[in-house]
Fold TAP binding protein like.
Amino acid sequence: MIEVILFGYFMTCVSDGAADVVLSCTLVEEGVGLGGMGGGAAFTRTPATVVFRDVPVAPEESLETLTAFVPPSVPDPDLLLFEAKVSSVEIPNAAVLLHADCNEQEVTCEISRYSPRGSQESSDPAYFMASLSVEGVEFNTALILQTLMVEKDHSTLIQNKLGLPLSQSGTLLTEVIFVVFSHIKSVSAPLRGDVLLNCGFRQHEIPLSHEVGIEWRLQHRGKGQKVLEIRTRLDDLEGNTVVHAERRASSMDAAQVVGEGNASVTLNKLKVVDEGTYICTVSLGPFHAQQIIQLHVVQPPHVSLSEEKLVLKTTSPKTLSCHCSKYYPLDAQVYSYWWVLGFLVITVLFFYQVMR
Protein backbone atom coordinates (compact mmCIF):
# COMPACT_ATOMS: atom_id res chain seq x y z
CA MET A 1 0.00 0.00 0.00
CA ILE A 2 1.37 3.42 -1.02
CA GLU A 3 0.12 6.23 1.17
CA VAL A 4 -0.23 9.65 -0.40
CA ILE A 5 -0.58 12.82 1.64
CA LEU A 6 -3.27 15.16 0.41
CA PHE A 7 -1.61 18.33 -0.84
CA GLY A 8 -4.65 20.12 -2.26
CA TYR A 9 -8.36 19.78 -1.63
CA PHE A 10 -11.07 21.93 -3.17
CA MET A 11 -14.82 21.71 -3.73
CA THR A 12 -16.78 23.32 -6.53
CA CYS A 13 -20.47 24.01 -6.60
CA VAL A 14 -21.69 23.05 -10.09
CA SER A 15 -25.45 22.92 -9.66
CA ASP A 16 -28.17 22.62 -7.06
CA GLY A 17 -27.61 19.46 -5.06
CA ALA A 18 -24.24 18.58 -6.63
CA ALA A 19 -20.61 19.54 -6.16
CA ASP A 20 -17.18 18.74 -7.53
CA VAL A 21 -14.47 17.19 -5.35
CA VAL A 22 -10.86 17.77 -6.34
CA LEU A 23 -8.19 15.49 -4.88
CA SER A 24 -4.43 15.44 -5.13
CA CYS A 25 -3.59 11.92 -6.19
CA THR A 26 -0.70 9.77 -7.38
CA LEU A 27 -0.52 7.84 -10.64
CA VAL A 28 1.15 4.49 -9.87
CA GLU A 29 2.72 2.61 -12.78
CA GLU A 30 4.66 -0.61 -12.90
CA GLY A 31 8.12 0.12 -14.23
CA VAL A 32 11.20 -1.78 -15.29
CA GLY A 33 12.50 -4.57 -13.04
CA LEU A 34 15.23 -3.62 -10.61
CA GLY A 35 17.49 -6.36 -11.98
CA GLY A 36 19.98 -8.51 -10.14
CA MET A 37 19.25 -11.18 -7.60
CA GLY A 38 16.16 -10.47 -5.54
CA GLY A 39 15.13 -7.74 -7.97
CA GLY A 40 11.44 -7.18 -8.62
CA ALA A 41 9.11 -4.83 -10.38
CA ALA A 42 9.67 -1.16 -9.69
CA PHE A 43 6.83 1.34 -9.46
CA THR A 44 6.89 4.91 -10.67
CA ARG A 45 4.78 7.52 -8.90
CA THR A 46 3.69 10.70 -10.61
CA PRO A 47 1.60 13.49 -9.04
CA ALA A 48 -1.90 13.73 -10.49
CA THR A 49 -5.20 15.49 -9.81
CA VAL A 50 -8.62 13.86 -9.92
CA VAL A 51 -11.78 15.95 -10.25
CA PHE A 52 -14.97 14.08 -9.35
CA ARG A 53 -17.81 15.87 -11.10
CA ASP A 54 -21.42 16.09 -9.90
CA VAL A 55 -21.03 14.46 -6.50
CA PRO A 56 -24.48 14.59 -4.83
CA VAL A 57 -24.75 16.99 -1.90
CA ALA A 58 -27.30 16.60 0.90
CA PRO A 59 -29.99 19.33 1.07
CA GLU A 60 -28.65 20.60 4.42
CA GLU A 61 -25.18 21.24 2.97
CA SER A 62 -24.25 24.87 2.35
CA LEU A 63 -23.16 25.22 -1.28
CA GLU A 64 -21.95 28.77 -0.63
CA THR A 65 -18.91 27.47 1.27
CA LEU A 66 -17.60 25.45 -1.67
CA THR A 67 -14.54 26.89 -3.40
CA ALA A 68 -14.55 27.12 -7.17
CA PHE A 69 -12.13 24.88 -9.08
CA VAL A 70 -10.59 26.60 -12.06
CA PRO A 71 -8.71 24.49 -14.63
CA PRO A 72 -5.38 25.82 -15.94
CA SER A 73 -5.85 28.82 -18.20
CA VAL A 74 -3.31 27.29 -20.58
CA PRO A 75 -3.72 23.49 -21.03
CA ASP A 76 -0.52 21.62 -20.22
CA PRO A 77 0.02 18.17 -21.79
CA ASP A 78 2.47 17.32 -19.01
CA LEU A 79 -0.17 17.67 -16.27
CA LEU A 80 -2.14 14.61 -15.18
CA LEU A 81 -5.61 16.06 -14.61
CA PHE A 82 -8.42 13.46 -14.55
CA GLU A 83 -11.99 14.71 -14.85
CA ALA A 84 -14.36 11.94 -13.67
CA LYS A 85 -18.15 12.19 -14.02
CA VAL A 86 -19.96 10.39 -11.19
CA SER A 87 -23.59 11.33 -11.81
CA SER A 88 -24.40 7.87 -13.24
CA VAL A 89 -22.89 5.91 -10.33
CA GLU A 90 -23.44 6.56 -6.63
CA ILE A 91 -20.36 6.80 -4.41
CA PRO A 92 -21.71 5.70 -1.01
CA ASN A 93 -20.93 8.01 1.90
CA ALA A 94 -19.38 10.58 -0.44
CA ALA A 95 -20.10 13.29 2.16
CA VAL A 96 -16.93 12.09 3.91
CA LEU A 97 -14.90 13.49 1.01
CA LEU A 98 -16.72 16.81 1.19
CA HIS A 99 -15.75 17.32 4.84
CA ALA A 100 -12.32 15.68 4.99
CA ASP A 101 -10.44 18.95 4.52
CA CYS A 102 -12.38 20.81 7.23
CA ASN A 103 -11.98 17.85 9.59
CA GLU A 104 -8.21 17.73 8.91
CA GLN A 105 -8.46 14.13 7.72
CA GLU A 106 -5.85 12.77 5.35
CA VAL A 107 -7.20 11.40 2.08
CA THR A 108 -5.22 8.64 0.37
CA CYS A 109 -5.72 8.59 -3.40
CA GLU A 110 -4.02 6.31 -5.91
CA ILE A 111 -4.81 5.81 -9.58
CA SER A 112 -3.43 3.29 -12.07
CA ARG A 113 -4.10 1.86 -15.51
CA TYR A 114 -6.66 -0.95 -15.58
CA SER A 115 -7.23 -3.68 -18.14
CA PRO A 116 -10.59 -5.52 -18.17
CA ARG A 117 -10.40 -9.26 -18.80
CA GLY A 118 -9.89 -10.04 -22.47
CA SER A 119 -9.06 -6.46 -23.52
CA GLN A 120 -5.91 -5.24 -25.21
CA GLU A 121 -3.77 -2.71 -23.35
CA SER A 122 -3.99 -0.18 -26.19
CA SER A 123 -7.74 -0.62 -26.72
CA ASP A 124 -10.16 2.30 -26.83
CA PRO A 125 -11.64 3.36 -24.43
CA ALA A 126 -8.93 3.25 -21.78
CA TYR A 127 -9.62 2.36 -18.15
CA PHE A 128 -8.20 3.42 -14.80
CA MET A 129 -8.62 2.18 -11.23
CA ALA A 130 -8.83 4.78 -8.46
CA SER A 131 -8.54 3.82 -4.78
CA LEU A 132 -9.70 6.21 -2.06
CA SER A 133 -9.55 6.04 1.73
CA VAL A 134 -9.94 8.65 4.46
CA GLU A 135 -7.94 8.66 7.68
CA GLY A 136 -9.95 8.04 10.82
CA VAL A 137 -13.15 7.31 8.92
CA GLU A 138 -14.67 4.04 7.73
CA PHE A 139 -14.40 4.97 4.05
CA ASN A 140 -12.73 2.69 1.49
CA THR A 141 -13.70 2.87 -2.16
CA ALA A 142 -12.34 1.47 -5.42
CA LEU A 143 -13.61 3.04 -8.64
CA ILE A 144 -13.12 2.07 -12.28
CA LEU A 145 -12.95 5.03 -14.67
CA GLN A 146 -13.58 4.80 -18.39
CA THR A 147 -12.31 7.47 -20.79
CA LEU A 148 -14.87 9.42 -22.80
CA MET A 149 -14.65 10.20 -26.50
CA VAL A 150 -12.90 13.43 -27.42
CA GLU A 151 -13.42 14.96 -30.85
CA LYS A 152 -9.95 15.35 -32.28
CA ASP A 153 -8.71 18.11 -34.54
CA HIS A 154 -5.38 19.75 -35.26
CA SER A 155 -5.47 21.60 -31.92
CA THR A 156 -6.16 18.55 -29.73
CA LEU A 157 -3.46 18.00 -27.12
CA ILE A 158 -2.18 14.52 -26.25
CA GLN A 159 -1.21 13.78 -22.66
CA ASN A 160 2.52 13.15 -22.80
CA LYS A 161 2.70 10.33 -20.28
CA LEU A 162 -0.50 8.45 -21.10
CA GLY A 163 -0.73 9.15 -24.84
CA LEU A 164 -4.45 9.96 -24.55
CA PRO A 165 -6.31 12.98 -26.02
CA LEU A 166 -7.20 15.84 -23.69
CA SER A 167 -10.25 18.07 -23.58
CA GLN A 168 -10.03 21.72 -24.54
CA SER A 169 -9.44 22.60 -20.88
CA GLY A 170 -6.56 20.14 -20.66
CA THR A 171 -8.33 17.39 -18.67
CA LEU A 172 -8.56 13.66 -19.36
CA LEU A 173 -12.31 13.09 -19.63
CA THR A 174 -13.58 9.95 -17.85
CA GLU A 175 -16.67 8.67 -16.08
CA VAL A 176 -17.06 6.31 -13.13
CA ILE A 177 -18.64 3.06 -14.30
CA PHE A 178 -18.08 0.69 -11.35
CA VAL A 179 -17.62 1.15 -7.60
CA VAL A 180 -16.75 -1.41 -4.89
CA PHE A 181 -16.76 -0.11 -1.32
CA SER A 182 -16.71 -1.06 2.34
CA HIS A 183 -17.83 0.87 5.40
CA ILE A 184 -15.31 -0.86 7.68
CA LYS A 185 -11.54 -1.24 7.60
CA SER A 186 -11.15 -3.41 10.69
CA VAL A 187 -13.57 -5.18 13.03
CA SER A 188 -13.29 -7.19 16.25
CA ALA A 189 -15.69 -9.99 17.16
CA PRO A 190 -15.90 -12.42 20.09
CA LEU A 191 -14.78 -16.02 19.90
CA ARG A 192 -17.74 -18.29 19.07
CA GLY A 193 -19.70 -15.17 18.13
CA ASP A 194 -20.94 -13.81 14.79
CA VAL A 195 -19.69 -11.01 12.56
CA LEU A 196 -20.87 -9.18 9.43
CA LEU A 197 -18.11 -8.15 6.98
CA ASN A 198 -19.39 -5.23 4.94
CA CYS A 199 -18.87 -4.95 1.16
CA GLY A 200 -20.99 -3.48 -1.62
CA PHE A 201 -20.95 -2.39 -5.25
CA ARG A 202 -22.57 0.04 -7.67
CA GLN A 203 -22.44 0.11 -11.46
CA HIS A 204 -23.31 2.43 -14.34
CA GLU A 205 -26.99 3.07 -15.02
CA ILE A 206 -26.41 1.23 -18.30
CA PRO A 207 -25.40 -2.16 -16.82
CA LEU A 208 -21.87 -3.34 -17.54
CA SER A 209 -23.12 -6.90 -17.20
CA HIS A 210 -26.07 -8.77 -15.72
CA GLU A 211 -23.76 -11.49 -14.43
CA VAL A 212 -22.17 -10.80 -11.06
CA GLY A 213 -19.67 -12.88 -9.13
CA ILE A 214 -18.61 -12.29 -5.52
CA GLU A 215 -15.73 -14.05 -3.83
CA TRP A 216 -14.56 -13.76 -0.24
CA ARG A 217 -11.06 -14.99 0.61
CA LEU A 218 -9.11 -15.15 3.85
CA GLN A 219 -5.37 -14.42 4.03
CA HIS A 220 -3.50 -15.10 7.26
CA ARG A 221 0.17 -15.72 7.97
CA GLY A 222 1.05 -16.34 4.33
CA LYS A 223 -1.80 -18.75 3.66
CA GLY A 224 -4.95 -18.10 1.66
CA GLN A 225 -8.27 -19.87 1.34
CA LYS A 226 -11.64 -19.28 -0.23
CA VAL A 227 -14.42 -18.57 2.24
CA LEU A 228 -17.50 -18.17 0.05
CA GLU A 229 -18.33 -17.59 -3.61
CA ILE A 230 -21.63 -16.65 -5.21
CA ARG A 231 -22.60 -16.21 -8.85
CA THR A 232 -25.94 -14.85 -9.93
CA ARG A 233 -27.71 -12.60 -12.43
CA LEU A 234 -28.91 -9.11 -11.63
CA ASP A 235 -31.95 -9.42 -13.91
CA ASP A 236 -33.31 -12.75 -12.68
CA LEU A 237 -33.48 -14.46 -9.29
CA GLU A 238 -35.14 -17.69 -10.44
CA GLY A 239 -32.73 -20.60 -10.42
CA ASN A 240 -29.63 -18.68 -11.50
CA THR A 241 -27.79 -18.36 -8.20
CA VAL A 242 -24.85 -20.64 -7.45
CA VAL A 243 -23.32 -20.55 -3.96
CA HIS A 244 -20.15 -22.36 -2.94
CA ALA A 245 -19.23 -22.02 0.74
CA GLU A 246 -15.92 -23.54 1.80
CA ARG A 247 -16.25 -22.26 5.35
CA ARG A 248 -19.13 -23.71 7.29
CA ALA A 249 -21.50 -21.21 8.88
CA SER A 250 -20.80 -18.52 6.26
CA SER A 251 -23.62 -16.94 4.26
CA MET A 252 -24.59 -14.18 1.86
CA ASP A 253 -28.04 -12.92 0.89
CA ALA A 254 -28.49 -13.35 -2.89
CA ALA A 255 -31.60 -11.15 -2.87
CA GLN A 256 -29.61 -8.25 -1.37
CA VAL A 257 -26.83 -8.80 -3.90
CA VAL A 258 -29.33 -8.33 -6.73
CA GLY A 259 -31.57 -5.68 -5.19
CA GLU A 260 -29.11 -3.52 -3.25
CA GLY A 261 -25.62 -4.37 -4.48
CA ASN A 262 -24.91 -5.75 -1.00
CA ALA A 263 -22.01 -8.23 -1.10
CA SER A 264 -21.56 -8.51 2.68
CA VAL A 265 -20.83 -11.91 4.22
CA THR A 266 -21.89 -13.21 7.63
CA LEU A 267 -19.60 -15.54 9.60
CA ASN A 268 -21.13 -17.49 12.49
CA LYS A 269 -19.48 -19.39 15.35
CA LEU A 270 -16.10 -17.68 15.00
CA LYS A 271 -12.92 -19.60 15.74
CA VAL A 272 -9.35 -18.45 16.21
CA VAL A 273 -8.51 -19.66 12.68
CA ASP A 274 -11.06 -17.18 11.27
CA GLU A 275 -8.84 -14.23 12.20
CA GLY A 276 -7.00 -12.48 9.37
CA THR A 277 -7.37 -10.36 6.25
CA TYR A 278 -10.59 -10.79 4.27
CA ILE A 279 -10.70 -9.83 0.58
CA CYS A 280 -14.04 -9.09 -1.07
CA THR A 281 -13.81 -9.30 -4.88
CA VAL A 282 -16.81 -8.25 -6.99
CA SER A 283 -16.81 -9.13 -10.69
CA LEU A 284 -19.18 -7.69 -13.30
CA GLY A 285 -18.49 -9.19 -16.72
CA PRO A 286 -14.86 -8.32 -17.54
CA PHE A 287 -14.54 -5.84 -14.63
CA HIS A 288 -13.59 -6.54 -11.04
CA ALA A 289 -12.54 -4.59 -7.95
CA GLN A 290 -11.77 -5.42 -4.31
CA GLN A 291 -12.00 -4.29 -0.72
CA ILE A 292 -9.92 -5.52 2.23
CA ILE A 293 -11.12 -5.91 5.83
CA GLN A 294 -9.16 -6.99 8.91
CA LEU A 295 -10.97 -9.33 11.31
CA HIS A 296 -9.69 -9.68 14.89
CA VAL A 297 -11.09 -12.47 17.07
CA VAL A 298 -11.12 -11.65 20.80
CA GLN A 299 -12.05 -13.45 24.00
CA PRO A 300 -12.31 -11.53 27.32
CA PRO A 301 -10.34 -13.14 30.17
CA HIS A 302 -11.85 -15.28 32.88
CA VAL A 303 -10.59 -13.65 36.10
CA SER A 304 -10.48 -15.20 39.54
CA LEU A 305 -8.88 -14.37 42.91
CA SER A 306 -6.94 -16.87 45.00
CA GLU A 307 -9.05 -16.11 48.08
CA GLU A 308 -12.79 -15.62 48.23
CA LYS A 309 -12.52 -14.08 51.70
CA LEU A 310 -9.45 -12.36 53.06
CA VAL A 311 -8.93 -11.46 56.73
CA LEU A 312 -6.05 -9.08 57.32
CA LYS A 313 -4.01 -9.15 60.51
CA THR A 314 -1.18 -6.78 61.24
CA THR A 315 1.05 -9.57 62.53
CA SER A 316 0.91 -11.88 59.50
CA PRO A 317 1.03 -10.89 55.82
CA LYS A 318 -1.53 -12.24 53.37
CA THR A 319 -1.17 -12.85 49.64
CA LEU A 320 -4.02 -12.24 47.22
CA SER A 321 -3.39 -13.48 43.68
CA CYS A 322 -5.27 -12.61 40.54
CA HIS A 323 -5.54 -15.31 37.86
CA CYS A 324 -6.49 -14.66 34.22
CA SER A 325 -7.27 -17.50 31.81
CA LYS A 326 -9.20 -18.45 28.66
CA TYR A 327 -8.47 -15.18 26.84
CA TYR A 328 -7.43 -14.34 23.27
CA PRO A 329 -5.18 -13.06 21.85
CA LEU A 330 -2.61 -14.63 24.14
CA ASP A 331 -0.42 -11.51 24.18
CA ALA A 332 -3.29 -9.28 25.31
CA GLN A 333 -2.33 -6.72 27.96
CA VAL A 334 -4.82 -7.93 30.56
CA TYR A 335 -2.62 -7.66 33.60
CA SER A 336 -2.50 -3.86 33.92
CA TYR A 337 -6.24 -3.38 34.45
CA TRP A 338 -6.59 -6.28 36.88
CA TRP A 339 -3.46 -5.26 38.79
CA VAL A 340 -5.00 -1.85 39.46
CA LEU A 341 -8.32 -3.45 40.39
CA GLY A 342 -6.61 -5.89 42.74
CA PHE A 343 -4.65 -3.08 44.37
CA LEU A 344 -7.87 -1.14 44.99
CA VAL A 345 -9.57 -4.21 46.48
CA ILE A 346 -6.67 -4.87 48.85
CA THR A 347 -6.51 -1.21 49.86
CA VAL A 348 -10.23 -1.18 50.71
CA LEU A 349 -9.90 -4.38 52.72
CA PHE A 350 -6.90 -3.01 54.59
CA PHE A 351 -8.63 0.17 55.67
CA TYR A 352 -11.75 -1.80 56.51
CA GLN A 353 -9.76 -3.98 58.92
CA VAL A 354 -7.89 -1.02 60.42
CA MET A 355 -11.01 0.99 61.05
CA ARG A 356 -12.88 -1.86 62.77
Observations:
- Residues 14-180 form one domain.
- The longest strand covers residues 18-33.
- The chain is about 10% helix and 40% strand.
